[in-house]
Specification:
The chain has three domains: 233 residues, Ribonuclease Z/Hydroxyacylglutathione hydrolase-like (Metallo-beta-lactamase, Chain A, 4-Layer Sandwich), CATH 3.60.15.10; 108 residues, Rhodanese-like domain (Oxidized Rhodanese, domain 1, 3-Layer(aba) Sandwich), CATH 3.40.250.10; 104 residues, Oxidized Rhodanese, domain 1, CATH 3.40.250. The protein has 18 helices and 24 strands. The strands form five sheets. A six-stranded mixed sheet has the order 1-2-3-4-5-6, with helices on one face.
């Protein structure tokens, strides 16, 4: 028996590869399917099933491409309806993988079709459960993403409570829990950085499982849920109804363009220029109007949060040899319309004599001096609202990056704005968007709030969470 968790940090997503006696199954695969095919080929195994725990909202699954290339059957839980060929399992239905048995346990609540897959070893002993977004380590799935008809998120939370108590918590304490996500995913609010655990330990430490009653569970699970990113519903629809082959996405996007071709494509196709280099490298020189979302951070979720049209044509500026990785990570969240990349990167653009733009970036110490000299400086804190409320500079205005499409119209194009986040990744995204929208005087505070806290401003200007916010 071979069970492998394949964890992708930038999406906080876990797929699973299961193999026994020359037969294999994949649970919740990512969009790019070559790694699963290679694993099966290495084990001389045939992939028989692709188990989907639910219609994922935070990424596009690779189930359709993988089924086409492997001949495997796509399996969903009860109530699922797809626009492609799939097997909708009955509650309790069993599937054989070599000497192993997989049992589909219908566990609605996160979504109506959510299903947990119980793995029973060759000795007939329950070994582990693949819980999808039903049960996380330290949390449970949010119940607000798939409400239907008159059902509220409280109704879905009540259903989730029943699923947990009737189907999962009745299993042995030593069984392993393998969820679909870990800390950093927007599919829950209190997930642990650990990616698996025993069920018994989760009963002892998971706040949702310790709720004394269904009413308390509903209250705790629904309290403080942030609105889902705008791309969630679109990804769920792609997973339900189908999508373009990832091979076609690569073929379309992996087109090297000269600076002249790149410029022409940007003008003719109405393409958005996406620069995926490190924020501080981007700041020194970039193609005018380019948006910086660096590959070294939570790239795909920020693309999904900020680029509202999945069909938006994209032109890429990348570090050398990073083009395929960028296209892969875009496709994982449904952005399939990359139409080319700048061959030779920004250096080729400069050698061709093309104009570049820049974002001024200053240290926290430099910012301290400016702030002490001018008490009227305009400072934008682009961290999330909860981060701002826990601790912030008195002089700052809270302007979460998530909501940048809503608040940029309120800025004065003649003003100079100093921008910071927690560490510098999000602030450069914000600065690049502001520059692209005609706000020329933008200054990034390198190192973000972590660096600002090491200045004298820490002792004089921090506001308590309850203090009224400026702006």
């Amino acid at each position: 028996m071979n069970i492998e968790q394949i964890y992708t940090g930038c999406l906080a997503e876990a797929a699973y590869y299961i193999e026994s006696n020359g037969e294999a199954a994949i649970i919740d695969p990512l969009r790019e399917v070559a790694p699963y095919l290679k694993k099966a080929a290495k084990d001389n195994a045939k992939i028989r099933y692709i188990f989907e725990t639910h219609f994922h909202a935070d990424f596009v699954s690779g189930h359709i491409d993988l089924a086409e290339k492997s001949g495997a059957t796509i399996v969903y839980g009860p109530t699922a309806k797809t626009s492609f060929k799939s097997h909708v399992a009955k509650d309790g239905e069993q599937f054989k993988i070599g000497e192993l048995t997989i049992v589909a346990l219908h566990t609605p609540g996160h979504t109506p079709e959510s299903t947990t897959y119980l793995l029973i070893d060759k000795y007939g002993k329950p070994y582990c459960i693949f819980t999808g977004d039903t049960l996380f380590i330290g949390d449970v799935g949010r119940p607000d993403l798939a409400q239907q008809g008159d059902l509220t998120m409280e109704d879905m939370a009540a259903t989730l409570y029943d699923s947990l108590h009737q189907k999962i918590l009745t299993l042995p304490d030593d069984i392993l829990v393998y969820p679909a996500h870990g800390a950093g995913s927007a599919c829950g609010k209190s997930m642990s950085k650990e990616t698996f655990d025993t069920l018994g330990h989760q009963k002892a430490v998971n706040y949702a499982l310790k709720a004394a009653s269904k009413a308390q569970f509903i209250k705790e699970v629904t309290d403080g849920i942030l609105p889902p990113p705008q791309y969630f519903a679109k990804n769920a629809a792609m997973n339900k109804h189908g999508y373009e082959s990832v091979d076609d996405v690569y073929e379309k996007g992996l087109k090297p363009l000269t600076p002249e071709e790149f410029e022409a494509m940007a003008n003719l196709a109405g393409a958005l220029i996406l620069d995926t280099r490190d924020p501080q490298v981007f700041a020194k020189a970039f193609v005018p109007s380019a948006i910086n979302i660096g590959l070294n951070g939570q790239f795909a979720p920020w693309v999904g949060a900020l680029i509202t049209d999945l069909k938006q044509p994209l032109l890429l500026v990348c570090e050398p040899e990073k083009e395929a990785e960028t296209i892969t990570r875009l496709a994982r969240v449904g952005y399939d319309n990359t139409i080319g990349y700048l061959a030779g990167g920004i250096s080729a653009w400069q050698k061709a004599g093309k104009e570049t733009d820049a974002v001024q970036s200053i240290s926290a110490m430099e910012f301290e001096g400016i702030a002490n000299e001018d008490g009227t400086v305009q400072v934008l804190d682009v961290r999330k609202a909860g981060e701002y409320e826990s601790e912030h500079l008195e002089m700052t205005m809270t302007r979460p990056l998530d909501d940048i499409n809503d608040w940029t119209n309120g800025l004065d194009h003649k003003e100079t704005y100093y921008v910071h986040c927690a560490g510098g990744y999000r602030s450069m995204i914000a600065a690049s968007i502001l520059k692209a929208r005609g706000i020329d005087h933008v200054v990034d505070i390198a190192g973000g709030y972590a660096a600002i806290k090491n200045t004298a401003l820490k002792r004089t200007d921090f506001a308590c969470p309850s203090k009224a916010m400026k702006g």
